[in-house]
Amino acid sequence: MRLDRKLLILFVVVLLFFARLISVSSRRAVHSVLITNLEAAARAQEADVVRSMAVGIRKGNEALLSAYLRGCLGGFGASYAAALDEDGVVRFAESVSTLSKSPGDRFEAWKKGLSHPLSGESVRDGRPVLELALPGARGGLLLGFDLSEILITERQIAVKIFLFTGAAGGLTLALLMLLMRDLARREEKLRQTEKLSALGRLAAGIAHEINNPLGSILGFAQAAAARLDPSDALTPALRGIEEEALRCRNLVQNLLTFSRQSAGAFEEFDLARAVEGTLSMIESQARVQGVAIVRELKDGLLAAGDRGQIQQVVMNLCTNAVDAMPQGGRLTIRSGALKGGRVFFEVADEGTGVAGNIRNKIFDPFFTTKDVGKGTGLGLSLVHEIMVRHKGTVEASFPSEGGSLFRVTLPGPLRRAK
Ligand code: ADP
C-alpha cells in the first residue's frame, strides 16, 4: 500500500513534467507555424513591396507612401507598417509613434544584401509585437504584428494540451493501478489454489489411510451393540462409538470428495427424488431441533450430473440450514426449471443468516464459525467444488427479513446440456 502511494506520487510528478514539456514545445510549435505563415505571406508580396518602396522613397512622395503602408496594414493584418530606406533606417511609419529611426542590429543582415525576410519579437507601446522586415534592393518594409492575441491563443492551446495530457495520463495511471491490483488479486488466488491443492492431496492421503480402520471401528461397534441386550450398560457407549465413527466417516468422505479432481459419471436423474432421498437422512435430526422441512419440489424434473455428489450438496446445505436454526424454524427446499434447459434448487432457512464481514469467506475451505468438533469448514467449499465440476453455480443471498438462501443451478437433461 505504501509502495502504491510512492509510485503514485512519482507518476504524478513525471506526468506533470511531461505535460509541461509537451505544452511548452507545442506553444513553440504554434508560434513558429504562425511566423512561417506570416513570412510566407510577406514573401509572396515581396516583389511588389520592393518596387513600391523604391518608388515611394525615391520620390519622397509621402501621400503615396502613406496610402501604400495603410494598404499593407490591411493586406497583412499588421498593426503597424514602416518604410525603410536602403540603409534600414525608418523613413515613414503608419500607426505607431514609438518606432526609433534606426531599427538596429536586426537589419544589419538585410543591409548586407540578404534577400529573405527577417523576423523578431519586440515591445511597442508596452505590447508584444512580432516584426517582419522585408528587404528590397532600394528600400524595404517593416511590418509589426500584435502578438498579445496570438500569445493568448497559444496559451489557451498550451493549457488544453496540458489538461488533455494530464487527463490521458491520469486515466492511464488509473488503468495501470487497476491492472496491478487485479494482478495482485490473481496472484493471491493462484497461491491460495496451489496451497489448497497441496492441502487437498495431503487430506486425501490421510483420509484414505483413516477410511479402513474407521470402517473396522464402526463394524465392530455395530456388531457388538447388536449382540448386547439394549438394556446392557455398555449399549449407550457402543452407540456413542458408532455415532462418532459415523461422523468421522462423513468427514473423511467429504475430504475424499473435495480432493477428487472431477465429478464421477454423469447421468440423468430425477432431481426431486434425489433431494427426497437426502432429506430422509436429516429429517429426524431436524424434527428433534424443531425444524420443519417444507418441500416445493417440481415433479419429474431431470438434472444431469453425479447424483451422489449432488445429494452431498443438498445434504451440506440442509445441515447448515438446520444448524442455523437452533430454536427451530422452517427449512424450505424448492426446485424448478430455468431457461436454456438448466435446472435449479434452493435451500432457504429462517436462521441466523451470515454477518456481512464474513459473507465472502463462507465458501473458503476450513472456514467455520461453529464450535470445535461440530464444524469442519468443508461443507460449503465442497458444495462450491462440486458445482464447478458440474459447470453449475452456487450463490448465497441473505434476505433482509433474516435467514439465508442458497441457490444452486445445474445442467438439465443430457440431450439438452452442452
Ligand atoms: P461448517 O458447516 O463445517 O462450519 P461450511 O463450509 O458448511 O462449514 O460453512 C461455513 C460457515 O458458513 C459456517 O460455519 C457458518 O458460519 C456459515 N453458514 C453456512 N450456511 C449457513 C446458513 N444456512 N446460515 C447461517 N450461516 C451459515
Task: Please provide the count of β strands.
Answer: 12
- Helix percentage range: 40-55%
What structural class do helix, strand and pairing data support?
A: alpha+beta
Shape: rod-shaped
Main beta sheet, described? 5 strands, antiparallel
CATH class of the domain at 264-410: Alpha Beta
CATH topology of the domain at 264-410: Heat Shock Protein 90
The residue ranges in which pLDDT falls below 50 over 5 or more consecutive positions are none
Spell out the helices and strands N to C: HHHEEHEEEHHEHEEHEEHEE
The mean pLDDT is: 80
Strand order of the largest sheet: 2-1-5-4-3
Rg, nearest Å: 45 Å
CATH H-level superfamily title of the domain at 264-410: Histidine kinase-like ATPase, C-terminal domain
Distance between the terminal alpha carbons, to the nearest Å? 44 Å
User: How much strand content do the residues show?
Assistant: 15-25%
Going by CATH, the architecture of the domain at 264-410 would be 2-Layer Sandwich
Bound molecules: adenosine-5'-diphosphate
Topology:
Layout: H1 2-44, H2 46-59, H3 62-76, E1 80-84, E2 90-94, H4 108-111, E3 118-124, E4 127-136, E5 139-146, H5 147-227, H6 235-259, E6 267-270, H7 271-288, E7 291-296, E8 302-305, H8 307-323, E9 329-337, E10 343-349, H9 379-389, E11 393-397, E12 404-410
Residues 316, 320-321, 324, 349, 351-354, 362, 367-370, 375-381, 404 line the site of adenosine-5'-diphosphate (ADP).
